[in-house]
């Protein structure tokens, strides 16, 4: 019965309801817009940015590092929107009400994480030609999958850890640090792998890791292990929190 939530008619009905909720909240609407705009702005600003950084600081191709932030940002923002909606659902008793329906809480959560992953993946697929058009095809696939997974993690961590919306906002400030973690991958030292416990780090390793770079297969396996590990912990915590 849980999978019945993915039936097109029911899925679209829930999606329409969520879209209306987001459109009524300027903060959530702003987050959605800001998950899309940076990639478009980056495409126009790349050359002026590189030229200015080279002239002012002697830093070549600084856009390669800014690109990491631009690519990770949608995961954090889309995840935050979903996470905040889940916090509201939990605090307002919506999840308790849904639990007595055939779909149940599990089905409702499946819908929320599915739409979050799909939106994160779609934004990334559009952003790649604008931000990192020259990367290999397998790297593009990994990048789309990673951002989709990180969107889900960013969504689940809020209701899994925060007890209320105030704590959720405070936790958001902490999780935002994940957007700059990929930059650690530029450090030419094995100690950089300590940051690999944070899922977003592996986007940096994939795109700007030191030469010689890790094989894509190694990065893919490590990405999977890291993301699945975090997902297992966060969904367990969420289960404890919502009952």
In short:
Keywords: Membrane, Transmembrane, Transmembrane helix. This protein is mostly helical and 243 residues long. Helices cover 74% and strands 0% of the residues.
List the keywords:
single chain; 243 residues; mainly alpha; 10 helices; 74% helix; 0% strand; globular
Tell me the number of helical segments per DSSP (H or I, 4 or more residues long): 10
- Structural class, by secondary structure, is mainly alpha
Overall form: globular
Order of helices and strands: HHHHHHHHHH
Average of pLDDT: 89
Domain count, please report it. Answer: 1
What low-confidence regions span 5 or more consecutive residues with pLDDT below 50? none
Number of strands: 0
The major beta sheet can be summarized as:
none
In which range does the helix fraction lie?
over 70%
Radius of gyration: 19 Å
Structure characterization notes:
The chain has helices at residues 8-23, 26-34, 37-57, 63-91, 94-98, 104-131, 137-161, 165-175, 201-208, 216-242. By secondary structure, the chain is mainly α. Helix 4 packs antiparallel against helix 9. The longest helix is centred in the first third of the chain and has 29 residues, at 63-91. Keywords: Membrane, Transmembrane, Transmembrane helix. The chain crosses the membrane at residues 27-45, 65-87, 108-135, 141-162, 174-193, 213-238.
Please outline the helices and strands:
Blueprint: H1 8-23, H2 26-34, H3 37-57, H4 63-91, H5 94-98, H6 104-131, H7 137-161, H8 165-175, H9 201-208, H10 216-242
Helix pairs in contact: 2-4, 3-4, 3-6, 4-6, 4-7, 4-8, 4-9, 6-7, 7-8, 7-10
Keywords: Membrane, Transmembrane, Transmembrane helix
Transmembrane segments: 27-45, 65-87, 108-135, 141-162, 174-193, 213-238
């Amino acid at each position: 019965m849980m999978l019945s939530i993915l039936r097109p008619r029911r899925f679209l009905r829930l999606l329409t309801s969520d879209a209306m909720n987001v459109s009524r909240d300027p903060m959530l609407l702003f987050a959605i817009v800001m998950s899309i705009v940076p990639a478009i702005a980056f495409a126009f600003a790349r050359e002026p940015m590189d030229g200015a950084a080279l002239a002012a600081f002697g830093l070549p191709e600084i856009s390669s590092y800014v690109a990491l932030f631009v690519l990770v940002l949608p995961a954090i923002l889309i995840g935050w929107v979903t996470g905040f909606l889940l916090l509201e659902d939990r605090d307002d008793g919506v999840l308790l009400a849904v639990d007595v329906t055939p779909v149940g809480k599990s089905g409702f959560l499946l819908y929320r994480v599915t739409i979050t992953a799909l939106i994160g993946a779609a934004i990334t697929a559009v952003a790649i030609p604008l931000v990192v058009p020259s990367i290999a095809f397998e790297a593009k696939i990994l990048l789309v999958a990673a951002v989709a997974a990180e969107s889900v993690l960013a969504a689940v961590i809020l209701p899994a850890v925060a007890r209320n919306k105030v704590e959720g906002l405070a936790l958001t400030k902490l999780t935002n640090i994940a957007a700059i973690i990929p930059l650690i991958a530029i450090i030419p030292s094995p100690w950089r792998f300590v940051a690999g416990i944070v899922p977003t780090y592996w986007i940096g390793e994939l795109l700007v890791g030191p030469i010689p770079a890790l094989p894509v297969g190694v990065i893919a396996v490590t990405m999977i292990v890291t993301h699945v590990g975090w997902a297992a912990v966060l969904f367990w915590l969420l289960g404890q929190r919502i009952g």
